[in-house]
Design goal:
Strand order of the largest sheet: 1-2
Number of strands: 2
Helix content: 40-55%
Largest sheet: 2 strands, antiparallel
Number of helices: 3
Distance between the termini: 21 Å
Structural class: alpha+beta
Length: 117
């Protein structure tokens, strides 16, 4: 057997040029997570700044207050992200982009009957 290096498969390249819109967009989940963290902090500050009630424990008050405050803060974080997203669309620009696709060309090998002949 000869030790010839295996030749790479032939490749076909396709180039296309088109217009692409480029802009900076905020990540919504980060704004919503920041809203959740702010909601928890606000809940703790508000709950612990008032005197304790005899009807409910401190944990119950923190839980009930936290449900509403955290939900409102997450919604506000999403709203801020949405406003920033709309503002970033005004500053978007269109640029020319080149897309290069490369595919391997499949070469059919002769059948066993044709090899023997």
């Amino acid at each position: 057997m000869s030790e010839q290096p295996e030749q790479p498969a032939p490749r076909e390249t396709v180039d296309t040029v088109g217009a692409v819109t480029v802009r900076r967009a905020p990540k919504f989940y980060r704004f919503m997570a920041a809203g959740a963290v702010a909601g928890v902090i606000i809940t703790l500050i508000v709950t612990l700044s008032f005197p304790e009630q005899n009807d409910f424990s401190v944990l119950q008050v923190v839980g009930f207050t936290g449900i509403f405050v955290v939900a409102i803060c997450v919604a506000l974080g999403a709203l801020v992200a949405l406003v920033l997203d709309r503002a970033s669309r005004k500053r978007s620009r269109t640029v020319r982009a080149e897309r290069i696709e490369e595919h391997e060309v499949v070469v059919a090998e002769p059948a066993d009957d044709e090899k023997k002949a």
